[in-house]
Amino acid sequence: MLPDIRKDVFRGLSSPVYRSYHDEYDDKDSSLKRSSSPLSNFLGILRLPRRHTAVAALNTLLLILFFYNLPSIPTFLRSGPSAMAKSNALFSSNPAELTMLPSERQARLIEKARNVSASSPFPKKIWQTWKTIALPDDDNYKFTSSWQKKNPTHEYELLTDATAERYVIDNFNETDPYIVELYRTFPKRILAADLLRYLVVYRSGGLYTDLDTECKMPIDRWMDESLTHLPGVEASDINVVIGMELDVLNRTRWSDDWVRNCGFSQRIQFIQWTIWARPGHEILRRMITSVQETVRADIALTSTKTISALRYTPNDILDRTGPWRWTRVIQRYVDEIEGRTVSIEEFGDIRGARRFGDVLFLSGGRWSPGLAHSGSDQTDSFLAHHFRGSWKGDK
Ligand SMILES: *[C@@H]1O[C@H](CO)[C@@H](O)[C@H](O)[C@H]1NC(C)=O
Ligand SMILES: *[C@@H]1O[C@H](CO)[C@@H](O)[C@H](O)[C@H]1NC(C)=O
Ligand SMILES: *[C@@H]1O[C@H](CO)[C@@H](O)[C@H](O)[C@H]1NC(C)=O
């Protein structure tokens, strides 16, 4: 029980943003499954197991299709699968990358990072999401106005259910209609809320931050404050800023059971309740691609091959769209842009900030102050996250 509460609190699951207010999605197709089709009635009369009949019919069909297409199969093989893939999709893996040498991959990421850096500064824009414009009547949201108050020169946008869907359609339907479909039909809205932040930061850049966060220091000071710890690093070297959510590398102090019971998959974890980046960053593109591919694979394994048939446990959610996958994607990116394997120990005990490639990692205290376990104190915090109470005093 307790670990569940911690996990939920930690993840902001108790935030109404994440509450499944579209629970009806869960059972959307159950009526379909119950209704029996004329075909199944017919098969029932014949007393043939439906599955066997279907397999036999499918095989026959495939055989007919095979012979029918025989003359054109060699051409199909020559043109290859890439000719069939949609070439303009933003969120797809590049098969060529699989065969690249690490040094080639590194060179490519460095070039991409340079392009991102040259094409835009960090946009002065703050993004938050909520289902309607009327904010929830809850003490935890009284902090929202701090973002506008402390950052008067930054544009502020609250995406509601309606405007968020419009945003996703306008920005991605042309290139990646499947992303739009996922966003609209995810059976749990937490999945959509996760996906939305990656889409917004990828396309528009700026600061995404959950509704229950409070600005403690004007955003315009964040970069300089952080770079005082890194002599020689310039703001122009940095394209994305990532906060530490967890840093419990000491196995004596934190057992494997502790880590698992608290809902973590590794001894370090990166924050995804706040993300700050220039637009077009490869980490966001990879994250969205990875979410899309894994959900597609999950759907293919369901009985009805439909998104509404997905049944994700809380850990599945952490893994599919949440911080587990986010952390892995970032680690992989850092390995590639550094051209070596960066061990998780290198993310431990960050004081102020640390840089890998074009990614700036902030100490826990900056974006996640007051976590006793990760040793993050509250001095010099950039922001506070307010679903934190039950973590306090938690050793
Ligand atoms: C970087 O930008 C240039 C100019 O737009 C482009 O030709 C090149 O393909 C980009 N590099 C990468 C790795 O995306
Ligand atoms: C997305 O694009 C497709 C094809 O271009 C179009 O048929 C569809 O209506 C669009 N969807 C939305 C929600 O605009
Ligand atoms: C790990 O934790 C133990 C127990 O709290 C402590 O005695 C030890 O010094 C710690 N090790 C390091 C490297 O901090």
UniProtKB/TrEMBL annotation:
UniProt xrefs under Pfam families: Gly_transf_sug (PF04488)
Cross-referenced InterPro entries: GlycoTrfase_DXD_sugar-bd_CS, Nucleotide-diphossugar_trans, Och1-like
Biological-process GO terms, alphabetical: protein N-linked glycosylation
Keywords: Glycosyltransferase, Membrane, Transferase, Transmembrane, Transmembrane helix
GO MF annotations, alphabetized: alpha-1,6-mannosyltransferase activity
Transmembrane segments: 53-70
GO cellular component assignments: mannan polymerase complex
Family from the record: Belongs to the glycosyltransferase 32 family.
Name of the protein in its database record: Membrane-bound alpha-1,6- mannosyltransferase Initiation-specific
Organism per entry: Orbilia brochopaga
Gene name per UniProt: OCH1_2
